[in-house]
Design brief:
By secondary structure, the protein is α+β, with helices and mostly antiparallel strands. The protein has a single domain, classed as 2-Layer Sandwich (Enolase-like, domain 1). It contains two helices and three strands; from the N terminus they run E-E-E-H-H. The chain has helices spanning 63-77, 92-109, and strands spanning 3-12, 18-26, 31-35. The protein has a three-stranded antiparallel sheet. Strand 2 and strand 3 form a beta hairpin. It is elongated and about 40 Å long. The two termini are 12 Å apart.
Length: 110
């Protein structure tokens, strides 16, 4: 279940705010997709979203999080075993990647 590709994009959540969607492809063709949930409230133990600030989309754009997936997370994950969930990640840039990895590994395992 070797990870072959990790790709992120910005999408709109149900409230039309920006969030991340990540696709993972495994060697042999298994795929998974994860979307970072965007809750209305934040608990003290929840991961902190990476938002851009500034003027774009009211400061809630996710271009920095997209860059994190492309430049840091994907290169660190490609080639690893998708079933090794102990290495998986958390946060808005990473929760969508983790969800995609979990889905791909589960579908591969049947």
């Amino acid at each position: 279940m070797r990870i072959e590709q990790v790709h992120a994009r910005r999408i709109r959540d149900p409230r039309c705010g920006p969030t991340l969607e990540v696709d993972v492809r495994l060697a042999g063709g298994g795929t998974g997709r994860g979307v970072a949930p965007a809750g209305a409230s934040r608990g003290t133990r929840e991961a902190v979203d990476r938002r851009d600030g500034g003027e774009a989309l009211g400061g809630r754009d996710v271009q920095r999080a997209l860059a994190s997936v492309s430049r840091e997370i994907a290169p660190a994950r490609v080639g690893l075993d998708a079933s090794d969930q102990g290495r998986d990640l958390v946060g808005n840039a990473t929760v969508s990647t983790s969800l995609a990895l979990l889905q791909a590994a589960a579908l591969h395992a049947g």
